[in-house]
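User: Could you walk me through two proteins back to back? I'd like the raw sequence and the structure tokens for each, with a short line separating them so I can tell where one ends and the next begins.

Assistant: Of course. Protein one, sequence then structure:
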Amino acid sequence: MQLEPAMSIPPAFQLFGTPHLLTLVLIAAVALVLPLVVRRFCPAAGRPIAFALAALLLGQEGLQLVLAARREGLSVDLLPLHLCCLSI
């Protein structure tokens, strides 16, 4: 009888694999559709929505850096020199 481990290790992230490509398509779709919907149905909400999205993006990047620093320690590898970080 073979026992299953209590916690299985998740599969490694594959660059340009299906989950990665679906995420990229979803981001592009939201980036294209959200401004069109806001302009058409609620133009006055454009500026607050833009500020909220900017705050979420900056907060996520900051939190990611803090968590990485706590997990791995401070190093040059934490500098945001990847395309995902530069897009912000």
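----
Protein two, same layout:
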Amino acid sequence: MEYYKLTELSILADNKFGVLYEISSILGQSGINIEAIVGYVDSRDKSIANFRLVTTDPDTAMKKLSKMQNIKNIDLIDILVVKMEDKPGELNKLIEKFKKAGIDIETVYLISKTKKYAEVAIKPSNLSVDVVLSLLEKEK
């Protein structure tokens, strides 16, 4: 397994028709590529949409998107990306390492997949990404 750190945009927006269109339009017009995206409606408040985006330029993306009327909040968040073989049981091996080290997970999602490899984004909830990287590197 290989580990590295990326920055994602965590966006809270009004859950209104066209918000994702506006986000993708602003980023596209700014020459910023969306490399990974997860979007969902808050289960407790259906008026709020949550988006997590990995882009080619998170700082500029944040500046551009924060001007949108329907955006409630944007944060830049460090995430851990794990490149692993794409075969049964690999995610479990990773999560077992997290469990043994006492690392709690806030979010996890797939960033990319090929025939041989999968890359998974993880946001730890109780430790910084740098600390988690250090702990995982010691286990190698």
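Residues 118 and 140 are 19 Å apart (CA to CA).

Let me know if you want the two compared in more detail.
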